[in-house]
């Protein structure tokens, strides 16, 4: 533990999350006393696993919470340890988990929930301190979010967080503050790249052109005035899949506690009448899920025949792939308005617009595809296939776009 320029201190026997809570309140005391605008970021270790010599053990709750929630188990959704293998890449090679492993996973889950109680206490301590200064509280935004989700047993997976599945990528973003409606829930696709632009707008700081995200509408006024937002979230990972706990699983795609060839790119698209998840693995395997009818991602529709939202899958998939290709190396506004990059005439602003029949030949025959030439444990452009899409020019003659025109 270290404060400003003080020497670091070792505090054996004290619970980390509680120490973070104490220091957070101390920083808050100083900030309030200073009388100037402030930003404080608080990042407790809970409910992360206890890591000892590279091994990930179940989280350690505070003593006061270690006996809570007896019998609590991982929710048994349809994708929990399913009878039929699911997912893509190395995940679909995993064997079904036996009862010993399932019991271990339930305990792993219970320890995480127990350790989260100290995080709740931390939040309470911050709010309690702000309530002692009402004039500060009424002019302060409090945000609760996280850097990733977590899976435990879904798709037969050992605990972890590095996969392109709903449990790993769908995270909370909760905000309280001036102009924010109490108890209101807003369902719009957002990502971490939107957080800084959101903070800038709340603080009345001009946005920077190089931002890859855009402000989230969080206040009552912003929600009323926001006319159009991105309908997509871009996701990617490079390297092996990290598996935690004592039982990494059994499967041909595993090497010890790591899932091999876990490099992937994915896009989530949410609009009126559709919610789609699309994944391209470095092995050039693909996944496509209709999240409205299959929220647990058990039915991979890639390559199948069928209809989603009135759209033929054989025509829908190339559009989504073209969107992902545009996003894979994007900068600035290309990341938030990729359809405008693909269709610079300005007549395509959503997947629905792109599904018009006039664009069938462009996407099916003439657009580049998202591909990899090898699986690497990092971003190496030479193995990433095409890095930029072909742009639709509005006539039958297609030309290749110049990346420098967009960035």
Automatic annotation (TrEMBL):
Residues 6-205 form the Sulfatase N-terminal domain. GO terms for molecular function: glycosaminoglycan binding; N-acetylglucosamine-6-sulfatase activity. Pfam families: Sulfatase. InterPro entries: Alkaline_phosphatase_core_sf, Sulfatase_N. PANTHER family: N-ACETYLGLUCOSAMINE-6-SULFATASE FAMILY MEMBER, SD21168P. Belongs to the sulfatase family. This is Sulfatase N-terminal domain-containing protein.
């Amino acid at each position: 533990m270290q404060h400003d320029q003080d020497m670091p201190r070792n505090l054996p026997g004290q619970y980390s999350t509680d120490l973070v809570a104490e220091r957070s309140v101390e920083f808050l005391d100083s900030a309030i006393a200073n009388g100037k605008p402030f930003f404080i970021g608080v990042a407790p270790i809970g409910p992360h696993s206890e890591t000892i010599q590279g091994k990930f053990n179940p989280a350690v709750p505070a003593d006061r919470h270690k006996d809570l929630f007896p019998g609590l188990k991982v929710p048994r959704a349809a994708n929990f340890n399913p009878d039929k293998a699911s997912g893509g890449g190395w995940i679909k090679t995993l064997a079904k988990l036996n009862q010993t492993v399932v019991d271990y996973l339930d305990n792993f889950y219970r320890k995480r929930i127990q350790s989260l109680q100290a995080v709740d206490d931390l939040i309470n301590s911050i709010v309690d301190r702000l309530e002692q200064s009402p004039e500060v509280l009424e002019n302060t935004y409090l945000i609760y979010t996280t850097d990733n989700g977590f899976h435990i047993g879904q798709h037969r997976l050992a605990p972890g967080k590095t996969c392109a599945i709903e449990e790993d990528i769908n995270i909370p973003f909760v905000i309280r503050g001036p102009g924010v409606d109490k108890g209101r829930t807003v369902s719009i696709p957002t990502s971490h790249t939107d957080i800084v632009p959101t903070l800038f707008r709340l603080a009345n700081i001009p946005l920077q052109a190089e931002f890859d995200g855009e402000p989230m509408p969080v206040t009552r006024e912003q929600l009323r005035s926001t006319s159009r937002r991105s309908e997509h979230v871009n996701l990617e990972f490079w390297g092996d899949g990290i598996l935690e706990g004592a039982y990494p699983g059994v499967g041909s795609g595993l090497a010890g506690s790591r899932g091999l060839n876990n490099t992937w790119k994915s896009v989530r698209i949410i609009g009126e009448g559709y919610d789609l998840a699309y994944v391209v693995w470095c092995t050039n395997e693909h996944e496509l899920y209709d999240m409205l009818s299959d929220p647990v991602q058990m039915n991979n529709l890639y390559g199948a025949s069928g209809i989603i939202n009135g759209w033929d899958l054989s025509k829908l998939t190339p559009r989504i792939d073209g969107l992902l290709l545009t996003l894979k190396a994007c900068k600035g506004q290309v990341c938030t308005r990729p359809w405008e990059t693909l269709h610079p005439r300005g007549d395509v602003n959503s997947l629905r617009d792109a599904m018009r029949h006039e664009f069938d030949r462009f996407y099916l025959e003439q657009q580049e595809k998202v591909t990899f030439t090898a699986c690497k444990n990092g971003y190496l452009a030479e193995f990433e296939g095409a890095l930029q899409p072909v742009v639709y020019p509005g006539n039958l003659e297609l030309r290749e776009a110049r990346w420098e025109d967009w960035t």
